[in-house]
Amino acid sequence: MSLQGKAALVTGAAQGIGEAVSSRLAQDGAAVAVIDINAGKAEEVAAALRATGAQALAAAIDVTNRESVAEGIDRIARELGAPLILVNNAGVYRSTPLKDASSTAWDLSMDVMLKGAVIMAQEATPRMVRAGWGRIINLGSMMSSVAYGEDLAYCTAKSGVLGLTRSLAAELAKHNICVNAICPGSILTSMLEQVGEAVERRDGLEPESWLQKRTNEIPLGRLGTPEDIANAISFFCSEDSSYITGQSLHVNGGIYQS
Ligand SMILES: NC(=O)c1ccc[n+]([C@@H]2O[C@H](COP(=O)([O-])OP(=O)(O)OC[C@H]3O[C@@H](n4cnc5c(N)ncnc54)[C@H](O)[C@@H]3O)[C@@H](O)[C@H]2O)c1
User: Fold this and answer.
1) Pocket test for ligand 1, best of 191, 192, 194, 227 (most atoms within 8 A of CB)
2) Among 97, 107, 179, 217, which is most buried by a count of CB atoms within 10 Å?
3) Chain-wide mean pLDDT for the chain?
4) Does 36 sit in the ligand 1 pocket, CB within 6 Å?
């Protein structure tokens, strides 16, 4: 229970990796704010955590909307205590070939995964600064470092996440706030299904065949689970990582080695 007494903000927590992170941080003793635009599913996740005896609440926050973020964090601070942990996990995947780079898919990708993470950090850090302790973990991707065809927006946004991580780490270190990125490989969530569907449209490869091909390429021989990512995030929230900041950790079964 290394996070006992600390409140954590987890964005995009209604499903997938964010749900697993919420569950893991609750097991670690944190009071968890399950943040998502999907209010119904966020409430289900928070209720399931409360049923285990954890302290948790759902917050319907759109991370791209500053007013929504500011109001939501104020309410969370009143109900759970000042949040000292922020996991910027909310994400979207839209296939974007170059010709669609000015489309809404491009804007949405930048808004959710970069602007949203910045707004969350801006609204969350004053309380961390006052406490003299904080942790921010940003979700990058294998695509922060390598590119696949027609993923221009996702790849660019996730590369930006690493710059954002380094920049926040440099600025916030004097307040004892550590900022790191986790870069997942292929993790079994609905987002991976969306990638498979895009590959099918693009290359005509059926999602099952693509997943098998991808699995065969992973040295550890399996796709990742949301819990694989939650384990690494738990470490970056803990005192065990207190001398690590500005770094990115690839959690990908060895498919890409940095
Ligand atoms: N699944 C993978 O293989 C994989 C690989 C690399 C990186 N990632 C990253 O991990 C993170 C989580 O991915 P996942 O696979 O669990 O995705 P997911 O699609 O299952 O979940 C994403 C969640 O983010 C929420 N969300 C979207 N826009 C939002 C907004 N504006 N405000 C608040 N919430 C919003 C969605 O409602 C959803 O609940 C993302 O940042 C993703 O890019 C995932």
Assistant:
1) 191
2) 179
3) 97
4) yes
Q: Is the CB of 181 under 6 A from ligand 1?
A: no
For 168, the token pair is 């926040």
91 Cα: distance to centroid of ligand 1 (angstroms): 4
The whole-angstrom separation of Cα 148 and Cα 111 is 21
Q: Name the least confident of 10-14, 171-175, 201-205, 251-255.
A: 201-205
* pLDDT value of residue 164: 98
- Residue 26 domain boundaries: 7-185+225-251
For residue range 214-246, list pLDDT tens digits in order: 999 999 999 999 999 999 999 999 999 999 999
- For 148, the token pair is 């696949």
pLDDT digits (tens, 9 = 90+) for 34-66: 999 999 999 999 999 999 999 999 999 999 999
CB-based contacts of 257, cutoff 8 Å, min separation 6? 250
Instruction: Give the mean pLDDT of 145-174.
Output: 96
In-domain check, residue 117: yes
Q: CA-to-CA distance for 252 and 135, rounded, in angstroms?
A: 22
Q: pTM to 2 decimals?
A: 0.98
Atom of ligand 1 nearest to the CA of 14: 39
Q: Map tokens 């916030």 to a residue.
A: 172
Domain count, the chain: 1
CA 116 – ligand 1 centroid, Å: 12
Ligand 1 pocket, residue 65 CB under 6 Å: no
Does any domain span residue 233? yes
3-state secondary structure of 254: coil
Q: Is 213 inside any structural domain? A: no
**Closest ligand 1 atom to the C-alpha of 88?**
41
* Protein residue closest via CA to atom 19 of ligand 1: 191
Is 198 among the domain residues?
no
Cross-strand bridge partners of residue 9: 33, 86
| Over residues 102-123, mean pLDDT | 96
Please tell me the residue having the least CA distance from ligand 1 atom 17: 191
Domain CATH code at residue 84: 3.40.50.720
